[in-house]
Write a structure and sequence with these properties.
The chain is mainly α. It has eleven helices and no strands. 60% of the residues lie in helices and 0% in strands. α1 packs across α2 and α4 packs across α5.
């Protein structure tokens, strides 16, 4: 499939916003919300943090679930502001507990927390999102849930490899689970063995 260089964003602030906004919606809707946010915030953390929840709701309305998503953005950006939007400092402060800290925020689930870890905080993690679950199921790896699949696919990857792996899986999913079928893919007929 070739290199993906995957997450489409100008900076890590935009990635934070996109990671929350994409929950339960198509990326086309996220694009509309980001287009609304850019002229107001220029994707600067302080400007996003300064928005009221009502202002956020109006700007992110195209992404749907705007009450929950606006609250998630407010809580995440309050945390980031506490550390002056220094992602490295925040990661070093919480260390291996950073994921738990993110999951404690309203509206941040496992997938969003892992996307933030991978693309914002530079922690190499496997994102066991829907496309990953479908792909690994098609390859014979049965998983009970997000966490179970993550345990089964616990491979040592560098940050760049983990980001590329996630991008490849999502691009494969968009192509072979949305527009075509897995049977038409170059992985059709392949199987993996589960370690758990």
């Amino acid at each position: 499939m070739g290199p993906q260089g995957w997450w489409p964003a100008e900076n890590k602030i935009e990635i934070c916003l996109g990671a929350i906004l994409v929950q339960n919606t198509a990326w086309a809707n996220v694009d509309k919300s980001l287009e609304n946010l850019k002229p107001v915030t220029n994707f600067e953390g302080e400007k996003v943090a300064a928005l009221s929840q009502l202002e956020l709701i109006e700007l992110i309305r195209p992404s749907g679930f705007y009450q929950t998503k606006s609250r998630a953005i407010k809580e995440l950006f309050q945390l980031l502001a506490t550390y002056d939007f220094d992602f490295t400092k925040l990661r070093q402060t919480f260390g291996p507990d950073l994921r738990k800290k993110l999951l404690a925020l309203h509206g941040i689930g496992e997938e969003t927390a892992d996307v933030l870890l991978l693309y914002v905080f530079d922690v190499p993690v496997f994102v066991a999102d829907r496309y990953a679950q479908k792909l690994f199921a098609a390859l014979g790896v049965v998983s009970k849930n997000y966490h179970h699949l993550q345990q089964q696919v616990s491979v040592e990857l560098t940050l760049a490899q983990a980001q590329e792996f996630h991008g490849l899986i999502d691009e494969f999913g968009k192509l072979y689970f949305k527009t075509k079928s897995f049977a038409d893919s170059f992985l059709a007929g392949d199987q993996l063995e589960s370690r758990l």
